[in-house]
Design brief:
Elements lengths: L3 H7 L4 H26 L3 H21 L14 H13 L3 H14 L4 H16 L3 H14 L4 H4 L2 H12 L17 H16 L6 H28 L3 H14 L6 H14 L3 H14 L4 H17 L2
Helix pairs in contact: 4-5, 4-6, 5-6, 6-7, 7-9, 9-10, 9-11, 10-11, 11-12, 12-13, 13-14, 13-15, 14-15
Length: about 300
């Protein structure tokens, strides 16, 4: 007699169960094969990504379709009040609101002193928005139209022009090349503007900040010239290096690199066997910067020259 437990122990499996199992495996295999064919079909990736992108756009439209409430500005009765509202909005970084108040003052009260101030605040707005090129144009326009205005004569407008140039100077972020290897146009403009500013407004309350940014930009330019000089030296072109080193000494004395640059210049002359020039540079270095470490090294080089060349 056939017993159920004997089927298991003997390894016997009824044919009906086997057929069912094989059928399911075949169906699963066919589905996987069809899916693989669909994925490998030319253009499937593009169609799939297009579909995903379309769903994303629809979601964005659905999210943005909710009505936005726009706050209606309440303009005041006087130019001063509207100007003050614009300044308040600007301080809160509510740029669009501030812009509307300032433009309202300029169009509604064109002869008011607050119309002039609104023009200046619009330049400040561009600066705070990071639109430095547009801000420079706005400040320069104000400077041209109102050369005797208090915000010009106290140095504010010229200072902001220089500061806007400085804000465009590349940063020294450690993952990127140093600033002296990048575009030097903003640094050159910063030096030019602030050099003129410090000559014209030496006692301005903005002079300390201007001098600080001026020095930073100057160092970037000096580092670039020093970088090029060392590049020439590494390529066996000392004459090209000499021109760069002389340029640093002549143009960027405030950068603070003069002692090390003079030492490198003297060593380069010595390498070219231009002994008198080398000795002259080392002597000038010792006179101008007696307490600097480079002056101590220059003294050793002079001793070497006397011992080696008898001069």
């Amino acid at each position: 007699m056939f017993r159920a437990d004997s089927q298991v122990t003997s390894g016997f499996v009824p044919r009906s169960i086997t057929s069912c199992y094989v059928s399911r495996r075949l169906n699963t295999s066919r589905k996987n094969t069809n899916l693989l064919k669909a994925v490998s079909r030319p253009g499937f990736t593009v169609q799939f990504l297009s579909a995903v992108f379309a769903v994303f756009i629809l979601c964005q439209l659905g999210c943005s379709s909710s009505p936005k409430t726009t706050k209606k500005l309440a303009y005041s009765a006087t130019a001063k009040q509207n100007f003050q509202k614009g300044v308040k909005a600007l301080n809160k970084k509510q740029m669009e609101e501030a812009k509307k108040f300032f433009n309202h003052v300029r169009s509604r009260y064109p002869l008011s002193k607050y119309a002039v101030l609104s023009k200046l605040r619009l330049a400040d707005l561009l600066f705070k928005s990071g639109k430095f090129i547009s801000a420079i144009s706005a400040y320069e326009s104000f400077l041209k139209d109102h050369p005797t205005h208090r915000e010009v004569t106290n140095g504010y407008v010229p200072y902001r022009i220089g500061y806007a140039h400085f804000r465009m100077v590349p940063d020294d972020f450690f993952l990127f090349p140093p600033s002296y290897e990048k575009d030097l146009t903003p640094a050159l403009a910063t030096v030019k503007v602030f050099r003129g500013f410090l000559e014209r407004f030496p006692d301005s309350k903005y002079s300390d900040k201007a001098r600080r940014y001026f020095t930073k930009a100057l160092k970037i330019l000096a580092k670039h010239e020093l970088y090029v000089a060392r590049f020439y030296l590494s390529r066996g072109k000392p004459k090209g290096a000499i021109l760069r080193l002389q340029y640093i000494i002549a143009k960027y004395p405030e950068a603070g690199f003069e002692p090390s640059v003079m030492l490198l210049l003297g060593k380069t002359y010595l390498k070219l066997k231009q002994i008198e020039r080398a000795k002259s540079v080392f002597s000038d270095l010792m006179k101008k910067h007696p307490d600097n470490q480079s002056a101590s090294q220059a003294k050793l080089y002079i001793k070497h020259i006397k011992k080696r060349f008898g001069k």
